[in-house]
Amino acid sequence: MLMRKVPVCKPEGRLAVASQDQSQATMVLVWDEPHLKALLRISRYPFNLIAHPPWYSWIAARGGLSAVYNYLRTCTLPEELHRLLETILAHPYAQAELYADKLFISRRTYFRQLDELVQALLPHINAWVIPSSGRRYFNVPVPLTPMIGADKAVETISALLLRPEVRLATLIGPGGIGKTRLAIEVAWRIKECFEAGVCFVSLSSVEDERLLVIQIAHSLGVETAGSQPLLELLKVTLRELQLLLILDNFEQLIQAGPLVTELLEAAPYLKVLVTSREMLNVYGEHLFEVPLLPLPELKRPLPVEQVRQSPAVRLFVERAQALDQNFALTEENASIIAEICHRLDGLPLALELAAAQVHLLGLSQIHSQLRHPLTLLQGGPRDKPARHQALRDTIA
């Protein structure tokens, strides 16, 4: 049977890849003595040795640290080495004296047994591969405009999702703050870290919790077969997939949060990224609060270059220039643009809707009409959902 090759994101360190014939596993020699000791949390081998590729993606592909430690416990070892392994796992980062005392052996014997244990485990752990289903998904929308001011957020969320112990992450924030756009950017950034790819599920038109399973199954191409419930078919499909599942606009289905946990429990290699206006409030959820765009200082006179550095201003100017090629940030308009961005609190959707009025109204008129922002901030792109065409609909 053809076996899975461990996915690697921007590999660091050396990988020895041994290709074998079609009837055997493809082995990727990820582990050496220092990194295995870091995995076992031996003193003087900090865990951050394996906190970057390829080790964390290897661990994530196998269901996280607990699953890896349970696998090591099943390896065939002499009784004395098995006792040593259990003692080490039970007391991470302890001194050699503690292990020796627990096992009633000398420090010298402990170090000898530790070396034997590492040498015995290396062939087992490097030979542990996962059967591949051969499936790969990637239906993430292609961004039509560059993302502005969110590089740090993208990096933070990507790193969060690639931590072995993180299975579920939720991006929360008010409407119009850019949760969906951020999730899309993250998906494109780390898509190669998931062997089965990324499946993007839009829930913007789904308001009935009972339709959640149907929407996810449809996105994955899962159809009912016979009398087997669709949820069970979905679990079977996901069970062997190392996949990132993005559930976008989950807030209207928030009571269905436990279903996400149910899928994660059934599929050990699955990770889920949710966008929502509120947390799912389920066990194992990791939250990331999406920030507003940083704003410029308000002082006069305001240097153009200082204003230009603000992500909120850059977004406003870029969207305005898309509709009016002659529009530019200048010494004369820098202050009023900064004030407009402050009036809109750095909310990306509000900035885009205001910038869309530049070719119709002057900056002064936009600024004065922001006393009644719900009237001004409308007329967004027709190909966007209603909630992205007017701030009033976003709030509704």
Task: Describe, in plain words, how this protein is organized in 3D.
The chain is of the alpha/beta class and 396 residues long. It contains 18 helices and 8 strands. It has helices at residues 33-39, 55-61, 65-74, 79-90, 96-103, 107-126, 151-161, 179-190, 212-220, 230-239, 257-266, 304-308, 311-323, 334-343, 348-355, 363-369, 373-376, 391-395; strands at 16-18, 27-29, 137-138, 168-172, 197-202, 244-248, 271-276, 285-289. β6 (244-248), α11 (257-266) and β7 form a beta-alpha-beta unit. Mean pLDDT is 83; it is low at 1-8, 10-28, 379-384 and 386-396.
Largest sheet: 6 strands, parallel
Secondary structure tally, helices: 18
Mean pLDDT: 83
- Oligomeric form: single chain
- Fraction of residues in β-strands: 5-15%
**Strand arrangement in the largest pleated sheet:** 3-5-6-7-4-8
Question: How large is the radius of gyration?
Answer: 26 Å
Helix proportion range: 40-55%
Spans of at least 5 consecutive residues with low confidence: 1-8, 10-28, 379-384, 386-396
Helix/strand order: EEHHHHHHEHEHEHHEHEEHHHHHHH
Shape: elongated
The overall strand count is 8
Structural class: alpha/beta
Question: What brief labels describe this structure?
Answer:
396 residues, alpha/beta, 6-stranded parallel sheet, two-stranded antiparallel sheet, 8 strands, elongated
Question: Mind sketching the topology for me?
Answer:
Layout: E1 16-18, E2 27-29, H1 33-39, H2 55-61, H3 65-74, H4 79-90, H5 96-103, H6 107-126, E3 137-138, H7 151-161, E4 168-172, H8 179-190, E5 197-202, H9 212-220, H10 230-239, E6 244-248, H11 257-266, E7 271-276, E8 285-289, H12 304-308, H13 311-323, H14 334-343, H15 348-355, H16 363-369, H17 373-376, H18 391-395
Parallel strand pairs: 3-5, 4-7, 4-8, 5-6, 6-7
Antiparallel strand pairs: 1-2
